[in-house]
Amino acid sequence: MEQSFLEFQNVSFQYREDSPVVLDDVSIQVNQNEWVAVIGHNGSGKSTMAKLMNGLLFPNEGHVYVDGLKLSDENIWEIRRKVGMVFQNPDNQFVGTTVKDDVAFGLENHGIPREEMIKRIAHSLKAVGMEEYEDHEPHRLSGGQKQRVAIASVLAVAPSMIILDEATAMLDPKGRKEIMHTVNQVRQERDVSVVTITHDLNEVTLADRVIVMNKGNVWFEGTPRELFEQKGDLQSIGLDIPLVSKFAHELKELGLNVNKQPLNHEELMDELWTLHSTM
Amino acid sequence: MNSSMVIGQYVPGDSPVHHMDPRAKITIIFFFVIVVFFANSVASYGALALFALLSVGVTKIPPRFIAKGLKPVWFLIIFTFILHLVVTKEGNVLFSVLGFDVYSGALIQGVAISLRFFLLILITSLLTLTTTPIAITDAIESILHPLKRIKFPVHELALMMSISLRFIPTLMQETEKISKAQASRGVDFRTGPIKERLKAIVPLLVPLFVSAFKRAEELAMAMEARGYQGGEGRTKLRELALRKIDYMVLVLFTFVIIAVFLTRA
Amino acid sequence: MDITFDNVSYIYQPNSPFEHRALENLSFQIPSGSFVAVIGHTGSGKSTLIQHLNGLLAPTHGSVTIGDVMLQAGSKPKNLKALRKQVGVVFQYPEHQLFEETIEKDISFGPLNFGVQEEEIKQRVQETIEAVGLSSDMLERSPFDLSGGQMRRVAIAGVLAMNPRVLVLDEPTAGLDPKGQREIMDMFYKLHHEKNLTTVHVTHSMEDALAYADYVIVMHNGHMYMQGKPLEVFKEKEALNKVGLDVPEIIELTTKMNKRFGLSLEYKKQSVEELAAEAAHKLKGGSV
Ligand SMILES: Nc1ncnc2c1ncn2[C@@H]1O[C@H](COP(=O)(O)OP(=O)(O)OP(=O)(O)O)[C@@H](O)[C@H]1O
Ligand SMILES: Nc1ncnc2c1ncn2[C@@H]1O[C@H](COP(=O)(O)OP(=O)(O)OP(=O)(O)O)[C@@H](O)[C@H]1O
Ligand SMILES: [Mg+2]
Ligand SMILES: [Mg+2]
């Protein structure tokens, strides 16, 4: 059995007593080294969920466990060190006046000695391919570059889990690809769990598992393949399925028996090839 | 982008002045500013001017660039000079212009005061020309460090300064963006009676405040998520260290001070 | 209104160390009533281009003509207000421009500035709030008490209420969920046809450019890199890849199918359903 790293047990949350319930009895888990994508319509509670994962918010009911620790006032700093977070707006999370200073910020907060800091800054900037920009000021970087620095800043602290809350939303397609590439690379090099919150369906296909939120409830939990087998339902909650899945659905209805729900062009093609050669 | 012109006009360089510890630079400027007011003879002014010009020369920053930076204050310097000519009535009448008698004492005082003013501006702008804003912030934090004992929030102050520096370009871009959006909706910021133009500022200021607050909120959240919990127990990447060059310049400057006091009239 | 760019160059902060050539020798024509998509990587000059359409920027060289207003390098533009009344611009994240106490006042702001009569404004507010898919019960509420997607809609309504002849959209759907994106784009498309507007749409989505535009302009480093009908432009996969762009996924998929199975499917804006049917037919029949 895989080891769970983070767990929500019957978590409910509302911002104020008189405001609506944003998360309603949510129970989920994220395993070690797992990549989980979270999707859902605007306002479905995704960001709120992310903030509960590292103690930026506390549940009104239920419990949050991180690496075996129950989230509480005493251990939030320890938990924040284990769970790093990259936010949507690249501008509003850049604290330092230069790239180097920004990566240092988190390390300084955790009291890492200077010698160690210098090593880690170099290492993590290299991991995201920004080592040549050490002394650049933020307003001279593109959005995608800023987000890569944000990821480097999180990596430098050596967390066990990274949350990306729509970290690619404000980027152009190239910037998005860069970030996804960076995330993939990081996963190969280190033991980290990754949670990506996104509206981009093609990002979802890369994850090990998907959680779909709808109006503060977990609407679906499973692999991307399982998710995209159900077409109409996803559209009814304001989402959609990727083009390949749509295409496969159509072919199936036309009597071409595509067995395995394809997640990308290659898989679709391979499925069809098997069929084609037996026809 | 025009932003870099606003944050002091730091000119990157490799001169000894650039490499000095910002605390040493600030200390020297502090005393320079005081000592200038003690100068009252040709020799004492000369010593200070020599020191200032030598410093400028060492930085290798084109004088043209420095002169451009001083542009706004030329007016003040000239104004002070003329004011003295007109107001002071000491010594002999040298000549008269437009019915005003110009006294010899006035001329001397005018030159002295203007020179004083010029040196002050020159030496302080040398700091911003050769030091990044963040290094200045670090230096201020370090110099104010002793005040921590009396619970003065030194670290917070420095952090606030560096964050403001960080966000000036961002907010300037934002201002431009919003004013363009409102201009597209028919707001005219440039023409019309003053009252109308003042009214046109509301659609600019409200969104700007809203967005600044939102940014501050998100930034605070991001800082917290990255483990920021105040100055306690933090280590620092940027370390200030006084080196040989700093001691040498400090000693040199001490001689200048001594020279000024010895040559006072 | 017809739009013509004639040898337009734009330089930010000319004669300074920060000088930047954002547009170079740009010439093209947009006939009245067309829906044009402008695509290109970040920093390629798209936003600079569209700011010429309502005189927020005037060309450093060359001239821009919109209807009967001409912006020419070196001469002070006249009739700017008249131009802005006719050209509505929806900027990126337009919700950042909201400022009034109520939604109604914010939507009325543009028309009021352009001297539209009060009666007329009332009517336009009603029309536009419905057009953007919000209910008119909300008019008295503060625009700041809304969700991000709703704020976006109010801001868009504020531009539509000016009743522009030309609609300029700078990535109007960024950050919305898939349904929200589709709804907003469908709304613009509908308005474009109903009101016979000229629409210029800056987008990073090749899918949207293909689905809605009847003409595509591809920018690269301030130059016009390519232009043409979407189906023609998106044939040039290699050329597009070279400047950091892609072809729409459905075209990519069609090409790949043809290659792998030796088919001769041709993509000409059919729906996914139709394309799948064609593919299935060819695959089953074995007839190539
Ligand atoms: N600080 C806050 N105070 C009060 N209500 C809030 C606050 N932040 C969010 N909400 C509300 O909580 C609900 C869930 O918001 P949340 O930000 O978690 O949604 P989301 O799924 O991340 O949406 P999006 O896709 O737009 O980012 C929304 O109805 C929102 O209006
Ligand atoms: N106010 C300005 N001052 C100086 N340079 C600018 C200014 N605005 C934009 N630029 C520069 O002009 C170039 C074109 O910018 P523009 O905003 O038109 O690009 P874009 O294609 O809209 O990019 P994006 O997809 O990121 O929105 C960029 O290199 C940019 O840095
Ligand atoms: Mg969110
Ligand atoms: Mg742009």
Automatic annotation (TrEMBL), chain A:
It holds the Pfam family ABC_tran. CDD domains: ABC_cobalt_CbiO_domain1. It is found in: Cell membrane. GO terms for molecular function: ATP binding. Belongs to the ABC transporter superfamily. Keywords: ATP-binding, Cell membrane, Membrane, Nucleotide-binding, Translocase, Transport. This is Energy-coupling factor transporter ATP-binding protein EcfA1. The keyword Transport applies. Residues 6-240 form the ABC transporter domain. The gene is ecfA1. PANTHER family: ENERGY-COUPLING FACTOR TRANSPORTER ATP-BINDING PROTEIN ECFA1, HEAVY METAL TRANSPORTER.
Automatic annotation (TrEMBL), chain B:
It comes from the Bacteria. Its main location: membrane. InterPro entries: ABC/ECF_trnsptr_transmembrane, EcfT. It is a multi-pass membrane protein. The chain crosses the membrane at residues 28-57, 69-87, 107-129, 245-263. It is found in: Cell membrane. The keyword Transmembrane helix applies. Keywords: Cell membrane, Membrane, Transmembrane, Transmembrane helix, Transport. Forms a stable energy-coupling factor (ECF) transporter complex composed of 2 membrane-embedded substrate-binding proteins (S component), 2 ATP-binding proteins (A component) and 2 transmembrane proteins (T component). Belongs to the energy-coupling factor EcfT family. Transmembrane (T) component of an energy-coupling factor (ECF) ABC-transporter complex. Unlike classic ABC transporters this ECF transporter provides the energy necessary to transport a number of different substrates. This is Energy-coupling factor transporter transmembrane protein EcfT. It comes from Pontibacillus salipaludis. The lineage of its organism: Bacteria, Bacillati, Bacillota, Bacilli, Bacillales.
Automatic annotation (TrEMBL), chain C:
Residues 3-246 form the ABC transporter domain. Its main location: membrane. The keyword Nucleotide-binding applies. CDD domains: ABC_cobalt_CbiO_domain1. It is found in: Cell membrane. SMART domains: AAA. GO terms for molecular function: ATP binding. Keywords: ATP-binding, Cell membrane, Membrane, Nucleotide-binding, Translocase, Transport. It is a peripheral membrane protein. Its EC number is 7.-.-.-. PANTHER family: ENERGY-COUPLING FACTOR TRANSPORTER ATP-BINDING PROTEIN ECFA2 (PTHR43553:SF27), HEAVY METAL TRANSPORTER (PTHR43553). Forms a stable energy-coupling factor (ECF) transporter complex composed of 2 membrane-embedded substrate-binding proteins (S component), 2 ATP-binding proteins (A component) and 2 transmembrane proteins (T component). Belongs to the ABC transporter superfamily. Energy-coupling factor EcfA family. ATP-binding (A) component of a common energy-coupling factor (ECF) ABC-transporter complex. This is Energy-coupling factor transporter ATP-binding protein EcfA2. It comes from Pontibacillus salipaludis.
